[in-house]
Design goal:
single chain; alpha/beta; Rossmann fold; 5-stranded parallel beta sheet; two-stranded antiparallel ribbon; 10 helices; 35% helix; globular
Length: 279
């Protein structure tokens, strides 16, 4: 449904569909036969809890149609394989790609749902061999799975992490190679990317997965940026104050989820930088 109630405050996502896809995207709907800019990404691009997410702001700043094809919890699998997104990438004059997590995509260790990439489907024989004590039927989401594996064995989990990073780099290179128009990368998160070789502060825990990084570190970002049109980092600054959810529409029970996502201030900041790049 496009009308969701956030406590006493309504937020209308105006969800739409495009031919060839069963996914629901944030509206308004645009004519893909006419020139447009395209924004791809996950929950942040969709603009969960945000009345005016950065794709809408870019369109307003430039006076040009901007198609928002952000999909909550999307990984590179859905961005590369969904028919509507593939068609839009081929027709767009430029693409803004919010950096996706490495966790939410199929790999040598497990497969994810083709449309809801945060849904864990099954473990491969390789993962079952490395973690023979685990009953994988207990898991439904990648965050829960990875948090459990990390808590069991740091050494064995390092093999999983290395695979996810390798697969992410390969699929990101494919995304950039197959997209013929300029691709502007966006890191929009509540924290900056970690430096290569440092422990990832957003690594999974038994309680779940932090959406801010998902294994993507600065080395991986720089590798992707080498063949992209630009890379924009949008994170909270020291003078931003202490109300990260101010201006967000959410119910009381959604406060934790809202705190994990960038608020309106960061959406405003990202839109300003990207609009200047896309002129």
């Amino acid at each position: 449904m496009s009308y969701e109630t956030r406590g006493a405050m309504p937020l209308d996502y105006d969800v739409v569909t495009y031919r060839g896809s069963s996914l629901q995207f944030r509206g308004p709907r645009h004519d893909l036969d006419r020139p447009f800019l395209l924004c791809l990404g996950g929950t942040e691009t969709f603009g969960r809890f945000i009345a005016n997410p950065f794709p809408a702001q870019i369109g307003a700043r430039l006076g040009r149609p901007v198609v928002n094809m952000g999909v909550p919890n999307a990984g590179l699998d859905v961005m590369l394989n969904d028919p509507a997104i593939t068609q839009a990438r081929a027709r767009a004059s430029a693409v803004v790609l919010q950096i996706p997590e490495a966790a939410n995509m199929s790999n040598r260790f497990y497969t994810v749902h083709p449309r809801r990439n945060d849904r864990f489907i099954k473990a491969t024989t390789l993962l079952r061999t490395i973690f023979p004590e685990v009953d994988f039927t207990e898991f439904h989401f990648t965050g829960h799975l990875l948090g459990h594996l990390a808590a069991l064995s740091a050494d064995r989990f390092a093999l999983v992490r290395a695979e996810l990073c390798t697969a992410w780099l390969a699929r990101m290179r494919r995304m950039l190679t197959e997209t013929t128009c300029p691709v502007h990368l966006l890191w929009l998160a509540t924290r900056p990317p970690v430096s290569s070789g440092r422990p990832d502060a957003s690594r999974p825990t038994p309680a779940g997965w932090s959406p801010a990084a998902g294994f993507v570190d600065r080395r991986m970002l720089d590798d992707a940026a080498a063949t992209a049109a630009s890379l924009t980092l949008t994170v909270p600054g020291p003078d931003d104050g202490g109300a990260p959810t101010k201006g967000m529409f959410h119910a009381p029970q959604e406060l934790r989820a809202a705190r994990a996502l960038p608020g309106p201030l960061l959406h405003d900041r990202a839109a300003a930088v990207l609009a200047s790049l896309l002129k």
